Amino acid sequence: MMSSTVTSPGIHPPMRIASLEAPQSWPPTIPFSQPEPESDDGNENELLSVSWNQDYGCFAVGTSNGFRIFNCDSFKETFRRDLRSGGFGIVEMLFRSNILALVGGETNIQYPPNKVIIWDDHQSRCIAEFSFKFNVRGVKLRQDRIVIVLENRIYVHDFKDLKLLHQMETISNPKGLCCLSHHSNTFVMACPGLRRGEIRIEHFGLNVTKQINAHDSRISCMSLTLDGLLLATASSKGTLIRIFNTMDGTRLQEVRRGLDKADIYSIALSPNVQWLVVSSDKGTVHVFSLRVRVGGEEASTQIVPFQSPAIVQQNSSTPFDPLSSPTAAANANSSLYFMRGVLPKYFSSEWSFAQFHLPEGTRYTAAFGLHNSILIVGMDGSFYKCTLDPVNGGQMSQKEYVRFLKSDSQRCATR
Asked: pTM for the whole thing?
């Protein structure tokens, strides 16, 4: 399916994003279209995509005339590129470095949606370009790998020399579902398998492939922990979220978003593997308490400092402790937990510990911030920060709201 791969020589080590602290337009010397005069009118700039960086500290948005990067704590726009040739339907960050993966939107004249651009903003140029016969559905980055997702195939490239290392077929995957681990000593990838409801797990460093029959319906959303040992999944029904051990495929926990069918927009697992947050088209963000633990859990609370792209070997002798904690308490909000096995299945599934209600009709993606905060970005250009009570749960309180695509963005906080 790949028609060509064009690389530019001299891939320099990524820098921290400290140099990207002010909105700016494309320099006139680079091979993109001439910069468009900056416009702060959000109504003229349609939002095409939203994606978090690997530690949820920043998010990138693709717009109809470029892209922008925002810092979440404290909230501010840190970087902007505006151009005349069109926008980007995919913008993937590599932590807070100068390296970005870009895929043009449908109307991008110079970079159509069947090309992936690896952009080095330190050099202000494209350092690699991948072209395909079909549109790109997703791109994921690690310090050592570039993963490109087409509708029926996934390609894994070495970041150092761009060599193609792996390719695999999947069932039809129009959403570009794929997720990666981000610890330097584990390289785990999860993606749809070849059958409906099946997920393929690749432990590349261990040379282990695992197939998990996660759901009866097609997979609609998935997320890995930072070390890749836990996987959370949802199906097109959108009522249940399941958590699996990626080493042996064991289902460790099942939580219930609701009884009615829903479109799950996002799933995120907290870095300390204590919480799971889910957003859907029902306008409510749900937070669930996890009852699983990971061997070497302390390592899961930190992300390895960013280094230059290089081959990182996975330690095949790493011990994996049992992931299910038999002494863990049940969900504090599930008073029927003691009757499991007696009640119907939808009662035995655990319900959410905390919730936050949003206006319906907008697609929202949620993640974890600092100090028990939940971060939410809407495709209407809205940003919310709310606080989770880790003891009592219940309705989360809104602490911050920003309309980040409007020139008169008002930052509001309630204490």
From this structure: 0.80
